[in-house]
Design brief:
By secondary structure, the protein is mainly alpha-helical. The chain is built from eight helices and no strands. Helix 5 crosses helix 8 and helix 6 packs across helix 8. The radius of gyration is 39 Å and the shape is rod-shaped.
Length: about 200
């Protein structure tokens, strides 16, 4: 296909296209290549101008222009002169195709942005994370062993088994105040052993 005449790349307001565009389009619908050549020459400036205004990118505009003209050739039989002018039908098709390209480009850019954002994140070193977690677990176990039996029992029941202070007191058969004292003293010793600052 030929390149559109760039000098004709604007559509005058109220332009209805070539007077015989309907006749040419009906001939194109019957497979008349000569009629398509004439129609191409008649509408290419307006079609390319509309595409260029929507896309604003020369290469994309040329590609969409070619797609539109190919679509005109393939779907000319769908044109009904009783429903509107040939130029309106062609420009509607043109506008839809150009807007679809803008939406597709935007979706692609959004998708690329999301992928880039995922890749920018700090790389996660699973081995280092596992080693650090195991070292911390060992340190906690060592510190728990440093507690008295009563303190360790109270802390384990409350923090690892999920019992409330009154439940711990009931299970151990000691007054609630005693459990609270054991817990406070045990947690202070754990804090000091783990090196946690208050």
């Amino acid at each position: 296909m030929r390149e559109p005449d760039q000098a004709q790349s604007t559509i005058p307001r109220g332009a209805e296209g070539p007077a015989d565009a309907e006749g040419l389009l009906l001939r194109v619908a019957r497979g008349d290549e000569a009629a398509f050549g004439q129609l191409y020459d008649a509408v290419s400036g307006s079609v390319f101008g509309l595409v260029r205004r929507v896309l604003r990118d020369q290469a994309q505009s040329e590609e969409v222009f070619q797609e539109v003209m190919l679509e005109v050739w393939r779907t000319a039989s769908r044109f009904d002169p009783e429903r509107g002018k040939a130029m309106t039908w062609i420009l509607t098709m043109t506008h839809r195709r150009a807007v679809d390209r803008v939406r597709s480009a935007q979706a692609s850019a959004d998708r690329d942005g999301r992928v880039a954002a995922l890749e920018v994140g700090t790389p996660f070193d699973e081995v280092v994370e596992q080693v650090a977690e195991r070292l911390e677990q060992r340190k906690v176990r060592r510190c728990l062993r440093s507690l008295t039996e009563l303190q360790r029992e109270s802390v384990l029941m409350a923090y690892y088994q999920g019992y409330t202070y009154p439940e711990v007191a009931s299970l151990l058969g000691v007054p609630l105040g005693t459990v609270k004292t054991r817990m406070r003293d045990g947690l202070i010793r754990l804090r000091d052993c783990l090196g946690v600052t208050a």
